[in-house]
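Record 1 of the preview.
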Amino acid sequence: MSLIDEARKKINAIDEEMVRLFEERMAAVLDVLKYKKEHNLAVFDSKREEEIIKKNLSLLQNEKLREYYLEFFNAVLTSSKRYQEDNYE
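->
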């Protein structure tokens, strides 16, 4: 198997795991939304978002990926907020 084939196989496996984790994360997002609704809280919590970003950036081992991770994670947060808003009935 060539290097590119091996890399693509690895990427495919990672993508499958990311899909599973994304679905798991979004299920947890709905649990957060349930709590927010029960306690009359807004969907967006800037302080919490800043804390999550800071914590996750501290886990990043390759500093060269910092801006790319921020871009990726901001997209995750945006999707999470939108999912909550779409389900805030």
